Amino acid sequence: MRTIAHLSDLHFGREKEEIQESLLEDLKELKPSVVVISGDLTQRALRKEFSLARAYLKRIPFPVIVVPGNHDIPFFNLPRRFILPLMRYKYYISNDLYPVFVDDEVAVVGINTARSLAVHNGRISSKQLTQVCHAFADVSEDHCKIVVTHHPFICPPNIYRPTVGSAAAALKKFDECGVDILLSGHYHRGHIGEADAHFPDVRRPILLVHAGTTISTRLKQEVNSYNFLTIKKNEITIDVRGWNGKAFSHVRTYEYGRKGESLTMKGGVA
Ligand SMILES: [Fe+2]
User: Fold this and answer.
1) CA of 179 to the centre of ligand 1 (A)
2) Could you tell me the residue range of the domain that residue 91 belongs to?
3) Which residue has the higher pLDDT, 205 or 61?
4) Which residues are in the CB-under-5-Å shell of ion ligand 1?
5) Euclidean distance between CA atoms 71 and 65, whole angstroms
6) Domain count for the chain
7) CA of 68 to the centre of ligand 1 (A)
8) Residue 238 to residue 41: CA distance in whole angstroms
9) pLDDT at 270 over 90
10) For the domain that residue 81 is a member of, what is the CATH number?
């Protein structure tokens, strides 16, 4: 069994100190095998914000897989935006744009979908798809294979915003190389979908898991939250943990079979 804490859209610059401290306490209690952060570490890609994000990441006492989001590329500084878009992210957070975590049961690969030109929806290149499949080629069929991006592949209900560019091509490739779960953020709304319901070419039961904004004030009609995944041989459980004003606590649970059994949901709505 392995556990993954899936955080997103921290947006340092708009962070809430009380919530960030409570999150650390919750993580220390739950002791995840790995912490995934699906982008938007900062609000405006400023040095001060990246510095806060770096200091916070250093306080997480577990392995961390992190990818950049569109807010981690400078927005107003056009020369920096187009010539060195990820310079500050690389300096303060990580120089590795293909972070990988592999143990005996799970394999997690992060890729950067933020682009200087594609402000809202981001993109995935064919080179990145090849890199992901290459990373998974060396792990066993029994490993749960997980890809982390900032931009999502589907929209939650009643949200009409662009999804990541080349989503259908990416899902087809992920289907071929055995991906089980995609973790993303961006909308600041938690949501879970099944790929084959949205992409007719996909045969594998790939779960599309969105996290809300975990510690920022940039809420979109739901509370601060994150996902806590428990991955067993034949079962994936996703607990949504939401901020209740004092601490993070259980909001609802989704249960999903590794062999494509349908999703069940228990609990409330944040
Ligand atoms: Fe965001």
Assistant:
1) 24
2) 2-267
3) 61
4) 9, 40
5) 18
6) 1
7) 10
8) 23
9) no
10) 3.60.21.10
